[in-house]
């Protein structure tokens, strides 16, 4: 999770649109899978283990959501994220998916 926090910090320091910042987060995942061929296998195994234990998965999910929320909030502040429409997903329902 520290890597995600650092990556988000880096993206927020750059004069980019929210779209480009989110794209760069996904590009970082792609680069990691290219550099480390077993990366997705390890991440998937860890997720399966973590998701089976709510006492571990809930705080980790909350932290990852908080990090990604930073990108969205910055986008709202710079005017490239809309807030005038409903997503159709309530925060409670989204948190339980």
SSE diagram, text form:
Blueprint: H1 2-13, H2 18-35, H3 39-51, H4 54-78, H5 91-95
> Distance N terminus to C terminus?
20 Å
Please compute the radius of gyration using only Cα atoms.
15 Å
The SSE string, one letter per element, is HHHHH
Number of strands: 0
Sheet of most strands = none
Given the helix and strand composition, which structural class is it? mainly alpha
Number of helices: 5
Beta content comes to: under 5%
Mean pLDDT over all positions: 84
Morphology: globular
Roughly how much helix do the residues carry, as a percent range? over 70%
Flag low-confidence runs.
92-97
Question: Please, could you describe this protein's structure?
Answer:
The protein has helices spanning 2-13, 18-35, 39-51, 54-78, 91-95. It contains 5 helices and no strands. The longest helix is centred in the last third of the chain and has 25 residues, at 54-78. With 97 residues, it is an all-alpha fold. 3% of the residues are buried. It is globular and about 40 Å long.
